[in-house]
Amino acid sequence: MFERLAVHQRLCCGVLYLLAAGVAFTSETRRPCPQSCRCNNELLVNCSHGQLSTVPDNLWKDAKILNLTHNNIRTLVHQQFQTLARLLELDLSDNLLAIVEVEAFLGLQSLLTLRLARNHLKIIPVGAFAGLPNLQLLDISSNEILVFVDFTFRDLAALQCIKAADNDLVFISHQAFTGLTSLHELHIDGCNLTAVPTEALTQLSVLRSLHFHRLGLNALPNYSFHHLVHLKELVISHCPWLETLSGNSLFGLNLTSLTIRHCNLSAVPYIPLHHLVYLIYLDLSFNPITYIHGNLLGDLLRLQELHLVGGSLLSIGIGAFRGLTHFKLLNVSRNLLTTLETGAFQSVDALKTLGLDNNPLACDCRLLWVVQRRQYLEFGGHSPTCTTSLQLESWHFLDFSEVELPGLLTCRQPQILNRKPQGVKVDQGHTVVFYCNAEGEPLPYISWLNPQLRPLSPTGRIRTLSNGSLEVRYAQPQDNGTYRCVASNAAGNDSLHVSLHVQAFPSSSKNPLRLKGWFALPSASPGVNGNQKHPFDVKTLLIAAAIGFLSFFSSVSVCFIFMFFWSKSKGKIKHTATIAYVPRSAVSNSNGGKGNYMETSRFTMKLI
Ligand SMILES: *[C@@H]1O[C@H](CO)[C@@H](O)[C@H](O)[C@H]1NC(C)=O
Ligand SMILES: *[C@@H]1O[C@H](CO)[C@@H](O)[C@H](O)[C@H]1NC(C)=O
Ligand SMILES: *[C@@H]1O[C@H](CO)[C@@H](O)[C@H](O)[C@H]1NC(C)=O
Ligand SMILES: *[C@@H]1O[C@H](CO)[C@@H](O)[C@H](O)[C@H]1NC(C)=O
Ligand SMILES: *[C@@H]1O[C@H](CO)[C@@H](O)[C@H](O)[C@H]1NC(C)=O
Ligand SMILES: *[C@@H]1O[C@H](CO)[C@@H](O)[C@H](O)[C@H]1NC(C)=O
Ligand SMILES: *[C@@H]1O[C@H](CO)[C@@H](O)[C@H](O)[C@H]1NC(C)=O
Ligand SMILES: *[C@@H]1O[C@H](CO)[C@@H](O)[C@H](O)[C@H]1NC(C)=O
Fold this sequence. Notes:
Layout: H1 2-27, E1 38-40, E2 44-46, E3 65-67, E4 75-76, E5 89-91, E6 99-100, E7 113-115, E8 137-139, E9 147-148, E10 161-164, E11 171-172, E12 185-189, H2 198-201, E13 209-213, E14 219-220, E15 233-239, E16 244-245, E17 257-263, H3 270-273, E18 281-283, E19 291-292, E20 305-307, E21 315-316, E22 329-331, E23 353-355, H4 368-372, H5 405-408, E24 412-416, E25 422-427, E26 432-434, E27 438-441, E28 445-449, E29 462-464, E30 470-472, E31 481-489, E32 492-503, H6 516-520, H7 538-570, E33 576-581, H8 584-588, H9 594-597, E34 601-606
One 2-acetamido-2-deoxy-beta-D-glucopyranose binds near residues 254, 256 and 278.
């Protein structure tokens, strides 16, 4: 009954409305433009800067564009725009809007674009966007929105883009995006959002571009975006706490463009990235990243651009872009790089753009390729400059003339200094340090090879020190041999041989418990000549050995008593027990020493 009445009323209204429209149509051109607005014949009503505090009510029914920006409108009431059925674009940006009532936009059935940016909206009630079946773009950025509640956007089936950046979102409800079946692009600001709204995002099955600003996370969790199979572009920016991406954080994505800018990443997220084989564009600018390591980006087969501007890059490793045959743009402006070697690239022929300015570059032979290719390279208007070489201080790369080039960007082969022969004889258990120091331009890198020609690392008993020296701690007879120091730089290498002869400790082979590994521990005095005395006399050693035996036998006895009672209680009396033990020295000697100590000692005891 009531329904029928309502339908009847609505029909009446419709007829009246049509009549009114017909009347209006004839008199439309003569109808005055609302005060403080400017109207033109393209059906644009421009009320910008009109000092309006409410929406004017005598608006043209045929208006296509309504501009109400820069006014003082605070409230949009129920069905405010009901008559504007042909309106395509409504702009209410830069007002004082705090309240949008339910069905405020009802009747705007042709509307494509709705802008509410830079207002004071804190919450959007469910139903506020009812009656906008064709809306494609919604801009609610720069408001003070705190939450998106369930079904906020449920009526916007045609919506393609939501711009909601620069809000104060602290919560996005699971069903907030329900109904957005056409949404391609979403910009949100998760000001203090402490979790990625993974659940809400699963509703956006056709999303192609997602922009997140100001997330309050310090690690991006695993499977954050795993339902967004059509997502191509992901932008995460201004997250000062974001330090890491979990290994599977980007799982399920097939991106072509990834940007993580102005965050706090200290390393390139190699593992989370490696499955993105369709990635073309990668931007990690303004993160405190210090290295791009060699051979770790090779899975990104189609990568064309890497931007890492304003980071803390100290070096780009050899082979960093190996395998990336399409790689054509590298922008590493404003970092701390001293050089960039051709070895980093698969091929520099493909490289078209290189941003290398504002780095403390050392102009030597390693950068010759940049100067030689300067006709083919685009430097983005900022030519790299030399800063570390006194003679070339602040020269622009474009300033060198062909003629002076070969003489200017040069390197000097390494030369090992103090080449006196280093042959060392020491007694077992002592520590030996071999020196190796080299000069060259650029400063050579020093490495050591063991007698089997394997490189030695900065860890272990035999290790390289940061100043180029080699340290052999607790020297053992099996350390004997010739070690090689290699100093290398971009111009070549130089090497030096040193030999080590370790004299086995004379009494060691007779000691039944092989305690000599323990003797060596307190020996600390380093020396190339190795003529130190033993740090302990025989008396001390005997006492130490006796204490060792005592504690050993007391534990054996406890074991033995325990076993005795245990076997008794089980009723199966065993009359012998075999006890095997591994001396501690075999465990503590990580390097070498295996052959001597690995065999276990064992003895058999008879039980009563
Ligand atoms: C509307 O008027 C303002 C000046 O009040 C002008 O800046 C703006 O460009 C106009 N907008 C359109 C779409 O014509
Ligand atoms: C977000 O966090 C910042 C600092 O932690 C705080 O100043 C700000 O008020 C918070 N914003 C909201 C909307 O909670
Ligand atoms: C960024 O990370 C560093 C350590 O990696 C930390 O010391 C610093 O406080 C972090 N910055 C912020 C804003 O959390
Ligand atoms: C994320 O996934 C990786 C790989 O499965 C796993 O090693 C890591 O522990 C996970 N991280 C978290 C925070 O669950
Ligand atoms: C990933 O995206 C590329 C193009 O961006 C497309 O050709 C490819 O089929 C997609 N792969 C999958 C598994 O969806
Ligand atoms: C590198 O990025 C900076 C900052 O975005 C830009 O100003 C510069 O032009 C870029 N350089 C190149 C070579 O594209
Ligand atoms: C190198 O460092 C080690 C330990 O830090 C030191 O014993 C040695 O004297 C140093 N060598 C040189 C040449 O400075
Ligand atoms: C040192 O240089 C020679 C050629 O001058 C080269 O054959 C050799 O591989 C280099 N050695 C190292 C360890 O770089």
